[in-house]
């Protein structure tokens, strides 16, 4: 008899229970922040810029994720509206989180005067790092798992440790640890992004598009193993396309049995395919039209000031580098040669 080894509640403070799910998501957000701050320093972006983004982006991501999930399962929530707010029990969708976070981010970047493509590129590794860590919240909650699998496959073929294998015993049977598959896929993805962002051929926006392509490929195939996918009843031709694209996986895996009441087209799979197509098209179109003239390695220019990020109007950059504490007092003045024709000099000449 296998028992749940991990208690979803990490600890309690009086009547308040702190869930592992929240701790893991908080850790994911913190790691993402640190990655963005470190890369942002190369372009003169301050840590406060990303801290403000985090404070705005995390609530936006959670709200977007919950709205997305609840929208496709409204029949289960319409009579229990208060359950909509119980996110500690799981039930948030990563695509909804991305939609919420990106809408918030784009508005924030424009408000600050930056090209959203440039900042989103910097944040791409942070997004995938958050997913690497965040999936372990599903592990603790025993959710987002795959179809049935033999215990021997988990222990002897995949060589998973006991604490993972035992946690995958849900409802008296063992299941595919799809959270682990996706976490490992994204781990390879973040390494890929770290390598690509130092390549001279990368243009503005292409780090973000690479993230979407990589994540969506993995999500498409891993989603097919799950038994709790959000789905809808689609036309026969669409069902055939989705099944055909997933068919290479049948060499080693059985598809997860999806409840007919949910539908026959997995929403996440369809979105993954559309994202891959859209990301590739955006890369090609932006290159062909010249919209991607900026490279990832180019300085990030603030559109409001016309200056590189981190350079303040009226402040001498050389003085700021040499003595940051007095930089704000070091105002860039025109050279004497450039001052001769100013109105003040002309008045002085007349008076003389």
From TrEMBL:
<keyword id="KW-0808">Transferase</keyword>
<comment type="function">
    <text>Catalyzes the transfer of the diacylglyceryl group from phosphatidylglycerol to the sulfhydryl group of the N-terminal cysteine of a prolipoprotein, the first step in the formation of mature lipoproteins.</text>
</comment>
<keyword id="KW-0812">Transmembrane</keyword>
<feature type="transmembrane region" description="Helical">
    <location>
        <begin position="267"/>
        <end position="285"/>
    </location>
</feature>
<dbReference type="InterPro" id="IPR001640">
    <property type="entry name" value="Lgt"/>
</dbReference>
<comment type="similarity">
    <text>Belongs to the Lgt family.</text>
</comment>
<feature type="compositionally biased region" description="Basic and acidic residues">
    <location>
        <begin position="326"/>
        <end position="352"/>
    </location>
</feature>
<dbReference type="GO" id="GO:0008961">
    <property type="term" value="F:phosphatidylglycerol-prolipoprotein diacylglyceryl transferase activity"/>
</dbReference>
<keyword id="KW-1133">Transmembrane helix</keyword>
<feature type="transmembrane region" description="Helical">
    <location>
        <begin position="208"/>
        <end position="225"/>
    </location>
</feature>
<feature type="binding site">
    <location>
        <position position="135"/>
    </location>
    <ligand>
        <name>a 1,2-diacyl-sn-glycero-3-phospho-(1'-sn-glycerol)</name>
    </ligand>
</feature>
<feature type="transmembrane region" description="Helical">
    <location>
        <begin position="49"/>
        <end position="72"/>
    </location>
</feature>
<keyword id="KW-1003">Cell membrane</keyword>
<protein>
    <recommendedName>
        <fullName>Phosphatidylglycerol--prolipoprotein diacylglyceryl transferase</fullName>
        <ecNumber>2.5.1.145</ecNumber>
    </recommendedName>
</protein>
<comment type="pathway">
    <text>Protein modification; lipoprotein biosynthesis (diacylglyceryl transfer).</text>
</comment>
<dbReference type="Pfam" id="PF01790">
    <property type="entry name" value="LGT"/>
</dbReference>
<feature type="transmembrane region" description="Helical">
    <location>
        <begin position="92"/>
        <end position="111"/>
    </location>
</feature>
<feature type="region of interest" description="Disordered">
    <location>
        <begin position="310"/>
        <end position="352"/>
    </location>
</feature>
<keyword id="KW-0472">Membrane</keyword>
<feature type="transmembrane region" description="Helical">
    <location>
        <begin position="20"/>
        <end position="37"/>
    </location>
</feature>
